[in-house]
Amino acid sequence: MKVVKELSACGGKLIKLSHDSISTKTRMNVNVYLPKQYYAQDFPRDRRIPTVVYLSGLTCTPDNASEKAFWQFQADKYGFAMVFPDTSPRGDKVANDPEGSWDFGQGAGFYVNATQDPYAPHYQMYDYVHKELPQTLDAHFNGNGVAKLDFQDDVAITGHSMGGFGAICGYLKGYAERKYKSCSAFAPIVNPSNVPWGQKAFGGYLGDERTQWQAYDPCALIKNVKHVNDDKILIHVGDADPFLEEHLKPELLLEAVKATSWEDHVQVKKVHGFDHSYYFVSTFVPEHAEFHAKNLGLI
């Protein structure tokens, strides 16, 4: 990994990194926020600092949430690190949407492993986010004598829009082995198989066979994942979100969990007057941070 830049922020530092990815076969960028506890002289060196992974939405880079969501204040408050991956592979050799639209291709990888050409060689975002990146970060940050960071065990996941979908999908697919301690989402695409954004992405990356889509669709996954303990999925969405009725449809996830072990364990909070922007996300980051801090044992 190459450190591109270190920026002091709040009580810690935002580290901008890049590395060659085995999964995507491209150079990938990722931002990591190290909270003030990482640099505290009295922090117990036998303890690991847990991590919250934030998956961004369409067109975003690792910088959007780093600059606009204000997670850093919360990371310092509770003592967790933040990981902000990119939303897709990038580069001149990486296939893009031939129509040049913003909701497919570069900047819109949808966190799946593509099976269709010309996207399959590079768009392996599920493996990148959930398998390769945690190992790569662990190797980079935990090879010295300072405080240790936990990228593989005490980890929570959240995301916005396309990233909210990616967070719920990854949480449910890794639920049996407790890959993530908790999951939340801001305005997620909960049923991509049945909305335009998801249908375009799944069709392009996974092909026309809809049975392949079910392996990533939260509304299909949650019916086959047995809920345990008191785990909850926390979701916020604004009632003034312009994408609410066509692309997000959070009510479909609530319908999907009826008569399953997840019934009453998915909480959708529809908040009045909020849209799809980072004004919305940043407003409710403190509630999501507290939610994850409790599940990570920090409260």
Automatic annotation (TrEMBL):
Q: What is its EC number?
A: 3.1.2.12
Primary localization class, coarse: cytoplasm
State its role: Serine hydrolase involved in the detoxification of formaldehyde.
How is this protein named in the record? S-formylglutathione hydrolase
Q: Which gene encodes it?
A: YJL068C
Q: Among its keywords, does the record have Hydrolase? A: yes
Q: Name one Pfam family in it.
A: Esterase
User: What is the native source organism of this protein?
Assistant: Saccharomyces kudriavzevii (strain ATCC MYA-4449 / AS 2.2408 / CBS 8840 / NBRC 1802 / NCYC 2889)
* Family (UniProt): Belongs to the esterase D family.
Q: Which reaction does it catalyse?
A: S-formylglutathione + H2O = formate + glutathione + H(+)
